Amino acid sequence: MIDLDAYLQRIAYAGPREPTLAVLSAICAAHPAALAFENIDPLLGRAPLLAPAALQAKLIAQRRGGYCYEHNALLRLALLALGMQVRSLAARVVWMMPADTPRRARSHMLLTVELPGAPGESFLVDAGFGGHLLGAPLHFVPGLVQHTPGGTERITQDGDTFALEAALPAGWAPAYRFTLEAQAPVDYEPLNWFTATHPTSFFRHNLRLERLTPTLRAGLLNDRLTLRPMGGTVQVRRLELADELAQVLDQVFNLQPPVSAAALFERVPRGLDGAFVPA
User: Fold this and answer.
1) Is 126 an active-site residue?
2) What's the pTM?
3) How far apart (Å, rounded) are the C-alpha atoms in residues 30 and 86?
């Protein structure tokens, strides 16, 4: 189902291949460092393909990334090939939304992983949440505060519902809420189609890029580039020209888009402090 050698080469991982926590942690760090989160295809009006061959052709054979369904579907295949037990889940995104926002449809894919040598212990794994990429597996222990290379996170629980939360300067912010109901690959097809094509979808109207390396969390929302060096000063600037976007795609996000930077830049809302929300 996956060319494991090609995947590991793409994420620059050359370590052991046993189903251990050390290997899982290394891959969870290497994946978002090499493969950027990006929604270029939905912004261009294209629904990404989720078949294994399509994922490998785009994310491995090209200098492309993808959004949650692509990243986590590819990561799932790799972890299964390494002998790990993987469950696919679906979540409702609540990131940066007011607490009274009406309930939204499930639109995010995440994973839980169990290792053969640690039965009963599981980890939340997510390589595709644009806005706050994770660079490590999280012990699935509700309430446990966990420090990862990219920040501080925790899992909370309310009955049968769990939430991933991130520590921000203003306090804990929930990223998404989910249950442990397993999803089959086919279950993501309608979610992917809705997320990529619905007229009100965030990804139809905004360019969101993110990359997480051991030294930097880089994010782009439309024309606003934010660089957060680990332990350094946050840098924010606007991209004024298509040539700037081309440079940022290449040098910051390691991306080669399927159209010219000029064509992509024409679709990007500019001068906003947040995302463009269609009426």
Assistant:
1) yes
2) 0.97
3) 18
